[in-house]
Amino acid sequence: MPDSPPVPDPDLFDKVVNLSKRRGFVFQSAEIYGGFRSTYDYGPLGVLLLRNVKEQWWRSMVQLRHDVVGIDASILSPPQVWEASGHLANFTDPLVDCKSCGARHREDRLDDPEVCPNCGEKGTLTEARQFNLMFKTHAGPVVDSAAEVYLRPETAQGMFINFLNVLQTSRKRPPFGIAQIGKSFRNEITPGNFVFRTREFEQMEMEYFVPPADSAEWYRYWCETRLQWYIDLGMPEHLLRLREHDSDELSHYSSATADIEFLFPWGWDELEGIANRGDFDLRQHAEHSGERIEYFDQQANEHWVPHVVEPAAGATRTAMAFLMAAYDEDVVNDDKRTVLRLHRDLAPHQVAVLPLSKKDTLTPTAREVFDLVKTRWMCDYDETQAIGRRYRRQDEIGTPLCITVDFDTLDDRAVTVRDRDTMAQDRIPIEGLVDHLAGELG
Ligand code: GAP
């Protein structure tokens, strides 16, 4: 870690937003209708990046572990769930309006609670009122209070209300976890910073149920394990930090919470929260549902309510952070090159097949190479424009390896494999190509 915090590039934000739009990572939603504020659509490259982020999370949290299972719970849920979780009463932000310009702000985010940051007027802000962030809708044709349902504002409650189902069907016992990836919805007062804070976003959450006496130890374990996940996927350590919450930041039921923060262009901000939530959630649902939500410990011959350690990350926010961390510019032969130094497991395409020319003579061999590669790696195929420009295009979207099929290939059955970062080129026989790529890409 450097002594002083690194200074973020002031233009990085605009560069990444522009690249995202220009190359098809992220589009403004409903753009042809003027854009639907603060919602975004993931384009052909963005959907691949986002899938890879989620896949890597699932792999490390579920696939590679014997003690975590997954679920996919519904997005719509009845008010009882949110009554029990405390969201109906407490999931609010303090909202103030400016009487001069009409702008709305979160009171707790104002630099000066007297001054409107939009128009600069002093003393024009209304008293704060609590605004619930949950989206409400109605199930079925009758629009009355009996039909009210909510879009989940977090995936976590799906795990708590399925605790007994999973316990009974999966043969797991504490310590064990339930993981879920999916969309959540919050009617944020001040969405912004591109996909950092949106009203519709994806979360990757895991509830880890542990014997009460072990929760502090598991909390520390998950803080370290989750921080390492970002580092293993190529995020530079100096852009990450683990920030423990002060006691006045903690919810009343949490004995410890830490945020994994990333140094965004606007400063340190949250990627993920890890919380020691005690037995709050299971007890609340037990009380409100009337179910006995406990674990029967056969060895000790006693019932107890597990405590929960929760690592809760944002998939869309994390994908954006990976883009920001990977964005780089260097100079090659006096030309500026933009390169996304994405980890090979996150890059939208791991490989691109680039026939040197569009001539029919090269096409069958280039297709043969594409067919060889595509079953194992996400592979792009691009045959138009000069080869140098096509390399630049692939560098800009983070493709780790490009394979060029040229006229010599027709004689020697070998192709050129070019590395994104070193730009080194190796001549590899087609017969050994898959093994070579496996060595480079895993
Ligand atoms: N179950 C706990 C929970 O939901 P949270 O800190 O409110 O905790 C977890 O959310 C993560 O979800 C955050 O660290 C962030 O990455 C992501 N997230 C939360 N609100 C978001 C929003 N409006 N837009 C994008 N991501 C968001």
Describe this structure in words.
The protein is an alpha+beta fold and 442 residues long. Helix content is 30%, strand content 29%. The chain is built from 13 helices and 24 strands. The protein has helices at residues 12-22, 44-63, 79-85, 87-90, 156-161, 163-170, 215-232, 280-289, 315-326, 363-374, 387-396, 407-412, 433-441; strands at 26-28, 40-42, 68-70, 76-77, 92-97, 104-106, 129-132, 136-138, 148-151, 176-185, 200-210, 240-244, 256-264, 267-278, 295-297, 302-304, 307-314, 327-332, 335-340, 351-355, 379-381, 401-405, 414-419, 425-429. The strands form 7 sheets. It has a 7-stranded mixed β-sheet, with helices on both faces. Strands 21-20-22-23-24 form a 5-stranded mixed β-sheet, sandwiched between helices. It has a 3-stranded antiparallel β-sheet with strand order 4-9-8. The mean pLDDT is 95. The chain binds glycyl-adenosine-5'-phosphate (GAP).
Mean pLDDT across every amino acid position: 95
Overall radius of gyration: 25 Å
SS-derived structural category: alpha+beta
Number of helices: 13
Can you count the beta strands?
Answer: 24
Helix coverage percent = 25-40%
Bound molecules: glycyl-adenosine-5'-phosphate
User: Which residues sit in consecutive blocks of at least 5 with pLDDT less than 50?
Assistant: none
Shape: globular
Strand count, sense and barrel status of the largest sheet are: 7 strands, mixed
- Report the portion of residues in β strands: 25-35%
Placed side by side, the strands forming the largest sheet appear as 3-10-11-17-14-13-12
Tell me the span between the first and last alpha carbons: 29 Å
